[in-house]
Amino acid sequence: MIQKRLSLSSMIAAAAAVVTLGLPGMASAAYEHPANNEKGFIVHPEHFKSEKTREQVIAETKAAMQQGLLSYGESNYPIRTPDAAGPGKTREQVVNELRNESPAERDARLRLYYPG
């Protein structure tokens, strides 16, 4: 019978994996609870306790953006403005566009949404 000794590096890697995989569960444990369903948990947002208001978080984010403390991707999220999207189209306009599209446009749209 041959016994192998575990190396120090493999034990450190195993401990790091356990910590890394366990942190997300520990962070959300306050409002996610185990459940006997497909997901394995149920979310109770009313259990989440925030110590900051939305305005405080927005102010901190803007300050961090101005100071350059956010990494790439964190600071370039588009700021929502009410008039940025415009009035939009009515349902009738969208239906008319779909009825009047050319066969090439229809084929391109279907390939975009249904690859295969």
UniProtKB/TrEMBL annotation:
<dbReference type="Pfam" id="PF13663">
    <property type="entry name" value="DUF4148"/>
</dbReference>
<feature type="region of interest" description="Disordered">
    <location>
        <begin position="97"/>
        <end position="116"/>
    </location>
</feature>
<protein>
    <recommendedName>
        <fullName>DUF4148 domain-containing protein</fullName>
    </recommendedName>
</protein>
<dbReference type="InterPro" id="IPR025421">
    <property type="entry name" value="DUF4148"/>
</dbReference>
<feature type="signal peptide">
    <location>
        <begin position="1"/>
        <end position="29"/>
    </location>
</feature>
<keyword id="KW-0732">Signal</keyword>
<feature type="compositionally biased region" description="Basic and acidic residues">
    <location>
        <begin position="97"/>
        <end position="110"/>
    </location>
</feature>
